[in-house]
Amino acid sequence: MEIAVHTIESALSAQTLSYVPEFFKEIEKHMPHTLKEAPLEQFAKADFRLLFVASGGSEEGFLKEYELLTSKPCYILTSGESNSLAASMEILSYLQNHGGRGEIIHGDPSLVAGRISALLAAAKAVSKLRGAKLGVVGKPSDWLIASEVDENALKQKLGIELVRVPMSELFEEIEKNDYPENEWTKKLLACGYDEAEVKKALGVYGAFRRIVDKYGLAGITVRCFDLLGSVKTTGCLGLAILNAEGVYGGCEGDIPSLISMAVLGAISGEPVFMCNPSRIDTGSREMVFAHCTLPLNMPYESSLTTHYESGIGVAIAGSIPEGPCTVFKTDGALERRFAARGEIIANLREKLLCRSQIKLKISPEAQCYFLREPINNHHLVCVGDWTSACEEFFSML
User: Fold this and answer.
1) Whose CA is closest to 334, among 199, 186, 118, 134?
2) Alpha helices, DSSP H, located in the chain
3) I need a surface site. Which of 24, 86, 290, 339 has the fewest CB within 10 A?
4) What DSSP state is assigned to residue 258?
5) Residues with Cβ < 8 Å from 71, sequence gap 6 or more?
6) What is the pTM of this model?
7) 61-70, 177-186, 333-342: least confidently modelled range
8) CA–CA separation, 38 vs 110, rounded Å?
9) Pairing label, strands 49-53, 74-77
10) pLDDT 10s digits, 245-261
11) Pair 293, 221: CB distance under 8 Å
């Protein structure tokens, strides 16, 4: 991806700027993006852009273009040459004195590239989620007693709209017993699991899909335990397919978790596992997360089994790649949030937990959070360390 860059410099220093192309190349070596000089009007419209202060004496040029340069947070890229950093500090101070927001990006090229990538991921996520519609099918499950949502705050900060869909509409769609044929439905039917059970679960997927399409939803959360008695199956498979298709699908009517799933997914571009914190070994700081569904495009291997609590329906037992991961949660007002790096060290298959189970190594700070001030029950996990981008996301709201 090309990142829009606008360069300002002193008219007296043009002869010293031969270092700039090589400076950009060194940064680009450490990220999958290129720095592209953009005309000022195009630069001003970009969702994410960098102001490159190439030399000392650039302050006057900044003032001439102040309105266009500061309509959004001003991320100032600097070098260690030609008094670039000194001029940038003067510019940032002026900007902050006049109520603006900004940051100087400076240092080793690899660290600069990492910072740019985090800021870009956050900006892209804000843009992607702005004005999104998230569906809530039925009420939150009765045990989610602390998982409130502030719809006005969601609307104000991101323009997110919650679309309420009654369970009766879902049941009407399930009665149609129809689902679209695609790569995921074909693979699931070819797994060798009980075909009648799989088709019943796919009928629920078809109902989810039609509701998503009808209301133009970017994500959906469902009071899924109500399906156990009336339909004699679960929503685990349907949600797993939706997530693999890029539609955020959450369990139990948990709205804050759906919002968190959408935020983490938009930031990372990775599939997101909504799961229960199940156990913490406070000595080793190893933590187990588990749930009966996860995106079908997330595990490197998986099998079908029954839903844990009920022993019926079709659930996913998947193995997620070991390595760095992000554990994330925000509340229903986008005010409190938690983002921490973890390390997936094992996939488990214990009998007394939900079917997909991962063991993480967590930090002392993360352990303290879970035991002293958690944001509700469910948390979200994706592969890769996206903690910096998660924090930046909220600074951009």
Assistant:
1) 134
2) 20-28, 40-45, 59-64, 66-69, 84-97, 109-129, 151-158, 167-174, 183-189, 195-215, 226-230, 236-244, 255-268, 364-372, 387-395
3) 86
4) H
5) 44
6) 0.94
7) 61-70
8) 23
9) parallel
10) 999 999 999 999 999 99
11) no
